[in-house]
Amino acid sequence: MDFILGPLYTLFGWLTRLFYGFFGNYGLAIIALTVLIRGLLIPLNIKSQKSMLKMQALSGKQAELQRKYGDDKKKYQEELVKMQQENGAMGLSGCLLPLLQLLFIWPIFRIVSGPLFYLSQVSQDNIQSMISLGQELGYLGGNVFVNNHIGLLSALNNSGDFLNQCVSKGYMAFDQLLDLHFLGVDLTNTPSVNPTLLIKEPGVYIPLLLFPILVVLIQVFSMQFAKFLKPGYKQEQEAKERAKNNPARQGQVQENSSAETTMKVMNWTMPLIMLITTFTMPAAMGLYWIVGGIMGIITQLIVYFMFTKPYEVKKAELDAKKEAVFKKKAQAEEEGKNNKKNGKKRK
To answer: String of b and e for 28-50 (b: at least 16 CB within 10 Å)?
Structure first.
C-alpha cells in the first residue's frame, strides 16, 4: 500500500504543510486540503451527472428493449450496453467517485496520524529514536509507531522533561512541536463513547463527540438531498405508483427495486465507514469528513443548476409539445369521425 500510495502521501503532506504555513492553524489547513481535493473531483461529478442525464433521455428506448426481448435478460443486457455505448451514456465516473473517496482515506489518515513527519518535517529516523527513548524512560507504551505517533505527540506535550531530552539529543527543535488545536479542540485526540473517559475528561472528550455526530448527519442529509435532485425523481415516483396497479409493469418494478436495493446498500456503506474511521482515528479525520460532506452538498447544487434543472426544463417543454401534437392529432381524428357520421346521416 505504501508503494502504491506513496506519491499521494508526499503530495497531500506537502499541501497540508503549505496550507499550515499560510493559515498558521492545523484545522484550517485540513479544511483547505479537503476543499481542494473535493474541488478537483467536481469535473468527475459533472461527467457522472451528464452520463445519468443521457441514461434518462434513453429511458424510452430502454423500455422498448424490455418489451422487445421480454424474458431474455442476457440479450436485453447486451442490447442495453450497446445502446449506452452508442449514445455515450456509459461511464465509470459514477463508480470512480466513491472509489477515489475511499482511496483518499489512507493518505489523509497518514497525515493526521503523522504530523511530526508531514508538517514538522522531523525525519522518520529521529521519530523512531524519540519513540525508543520515550519507551525506555516510561513515557510511552508499546503501541506507538513511526507512522502513527499520536501517542508520541501527547508525551511531548505533557512532559517537559521528555521534550527537553529529545531537543537536547537533536531529535527535534522546540519550534517543530506545532499547535494542532482547532476551535479549542485537540485534533490529535480520538473521539470516544467510553464513559470513563467522558466522566474523567469531559472538557476533552464531550466536544470530540460532535465530530462523529456531524459526520453522520451531514452524510445522511447529503444522500437524501442527492435523491431529490436526481433527474426525473418525480416522474420515477409517479411511475412506481402507476406500476403498482399495472401487472404488466411488475417485472420492471422488481428489476428497478433490485437496483435500488443495491444502491441503498452502497449509499449506507460510506456513512458506516465514516463513522468507524471517526471513532478510531484522530479528530482531524472527522473534520475531513465533515468538510468533505459539505463540499459534496455544494457540488450537488452546482451540478443541479448547471445541468439537471436545464435538462428537466427542456424535457418538460418537449413533453408539452408532444402532448399538444398528440391532442391535435386526436382532435383531428375525432373531427374526421364526426364528419363521416354527419355525411352518412345526410345520405
So the answer is: ebbbbbbbebbeebeebbbbbbb
